[in-house]
Specification:
Radius of gyration: 27 Å
Number of domains: 3
Oligomer: single chain
Shape: elongated
Mean pLDDT: 76
CATH architecture of the largest domain: Orthogonal Bundle
Number of helices: 13
CATH class of the largest domain: Mainly Alpha
Order of helices and strands: HHHHHHHHHHHHH
Largest sheet: none
CATH topology of the largest domain: TerB-like
Distance between the termini: 54 Å
Length: 269
Amino acid sequence: MLGKVIGALVGFAVTQDIVGAVMGMLIGFAFDFYIEEIEGPMRKRDEWETEFSYLFVILHAKFAKMDGRVTPEEVQLFQNISSISKQDVSAVRTLYNLHRRSSDGFEHVAVRLAEMMAFDMNKLLPVLESLCVVMYGSGQGNDLYQKAFIQAVAHIFSVSDEVLNELMLDVKALIKKQGGYGSAKDGAGSSYASNDFRWGASDKSFKTLGLSTKASYEEVRSAYKKAIRQYHPDKVRGAGGSEKDIKQAEVKLAEINEAYADLTSKLNG
């Protein structure tokens, strides 16, 4: 309505006759139509997709933390099942790492997802399926905490136990048939996945501590303590090392500390 009024006034002001006013009104009508019928729905859809993606990331982060520790396999699987553009990787990483600290409050996330999907089972089942993929794909199919998490979300989604059990069996059978899910090879073709599944942890950091890229958080801590004892400058000095040896030990110690900081910031749930 506003576009038609403004268009009529501008048209009359320019031409000083009724024809200009009518033309301006028609242009204003077209503008109103664009805003109400095209741009408005597009804006709403973008907002919906943004909120859904936001909630999906949070739900998975809290799910991974449910059993007490977020494993590298869970992070990798989440990356591989997520359809997130490369330019959003940094934002998703930050959001995931923020919410993987605690599983508390996941029920509120599930409730909002259910509301957004209007409790449509066909839309909600893929969300449950993604959680099952992470659970079975990471080898934690027997974890009671994660199963309880999925069951709680299913109840919030109004999905029956019968349907959920069937879904779990299907996912479990599929993963068993494939010999796993979400390997680096599987994820390499997605727009979001990366060979570096530790949210940016470099291979160099693992190598510095003498570890494989599949090392757990506990293994990283153990390797760090061992490396500190081995390369600490004070030990070199106490063993009668030369100034050159001591300098080399200081450089090595700095590399070890840098690698440890890099890895623990990615692996510590």
